[in-house]
Amino acid sequence: KITLDGPMLEPILRHASGRSFREFVYGARARVAFLGGSGPGDNTANLEMILKDRKNFSNLLGYTSWGHMIYTRRMATLEQAYAFLARLRRDIKPKAKTELFELQQIARSHGAEYKLDYFDLNYWRERLVEKRFSLKEEYLREFFQLPNVLNGLFGLLQRLFGVEIVAADGDAHIWDPYVRFFRVREADTG
């Protein structure tokens, strides 16, 4: 069964060679809760109501917008956040254009004579990594087996925060047989 959840969606967009399938899956995910203004599952009216209520609430409290109100509880103002995003956009745009050009080149070298779209990027980025580094995801898996990753992560957490992570499988209700349950406790006091 294919779902539109991230853990299912990401591998499809990275590995499905069929462009029309990638486009279909990407489009289906983008339309979750939005059916273009029609149908029983369309949340457009709810979203519009939430936006209107947020604006009214923030205005009632003396703020220009919901964003201005929310940022009073943050370390930055709304203007600072927008300025940061503008700087970030300015600084990374040349690199992003270069990377997009590289992806377009790798796609063309594989016979793809179309302009890349959002749903193409992960697929061609994966092909670029394979070509540039002769590296496939399956190869990396043998070095990142779950027990080794968990031991490394738990050791790092112990060194950084002085906590101990202990397996407690069976102590909690789980929704899938592959789910594990762990308890976090202070390493010194248990």
What's this entry about, in short?
By secondary structure, the chain is mainly alpha-helical. Helix content is 59%, strand content 5%.
Structure explained in plain terms:
The structure is a single chain. 59% of the residues lie in helices and 5% in strands. The chain has helices at 6-15, 19-30, 44-60, 66-70, 78-109, 118-133, 137-141, 146-161; strands spanning 163-167, 182-186. Strands 1-2 form a two-stranded antiparallel sheet. The chain is extended, with a radius of gyration of 23 Å. The protein starts with 5 loop residues before the first helix and ends with a strand. The mean pLDDT is 90.
What is the strand arrangement across the widest sheet?
Answer: 1-2
Which consecutive residue ranges, at least 5 long each, have pLDDT under 50? none
What is the residue-averaged pLDDT?
90
Our count of helices gives 8
Q: Biggest sheet, in brief?
A: 2 strands, antiparallel
- How far the N terminus sits from the C terminus, by CA atoms, comes to 42 Å
Encode the helix/strand succession as letters: HHHHHHHHEE
Provide the gyration radius in Å: 23 Å
The portion of residues forming beta strands comes to 5-15%
Q: Structural class of the helices, strands and pairings?
A: mainly alpha
Number of strands: 2
The percentage helix is 55-70%
Morphology: extended
